[in-house]
Amino acid sequence: MSARTQTRTHRAAPDTVEIRLPWWAVVLPALAFAALLLLIAGPGQAQAAAGDPAVGRLLGRLLDLLAA
């Protein structure tokens, strides 16, 4: 007596790749990047960018958002 094999009801097309990531696989690298960016351009470094005041304002707003 032979055993039945189960067949999948949902099969991806042979020429496509299906990748599913958990939410933390996207969020954790983004948070690590933001933390490193803040360490590199901390509040003391924002005034050093006097040539381009937009960068200093942007960093100031990012710090304000993260502090809130």
Structural overview:
Helices cover 53% and strands 0% of the residues. The chain is rod-shaped and about 80 Å long. It is mainly alpha-helical. It has 3 helices and no strands. The chain has helices at residues 24-40, 43-46, 53-67. The N and C termini lie far apart (68 Å).
Per-chain topology:
Layout lengths: L23 H17 L2 H4 L6 H15 L1
Which key terms come to mind for this protein?
3 helices; mainly alpha; 68 residues
**Regions with little confidence, pLDDT below 50 for 5+ residues:** none
- How would you state the average pLDDT, rounded? 77
% residues in beta strands: under 5%
The DSSP helix count reads 3
The helix/strand order is HHH
Structural class: mainly alpha
Number of strands: 0
Percent of residues in helices:
40-55%
Ends: how far apart? 68 Å
Radius of gyration: 24 Å
Major sheet characteristics: none
Identify the overall geometry.
rod-shaped
Task: Briefly characterize the structure.
Helices cover 53% and strands 0% of the residues. The protein is an all-alpha fold. The mean pLDDT is 77.
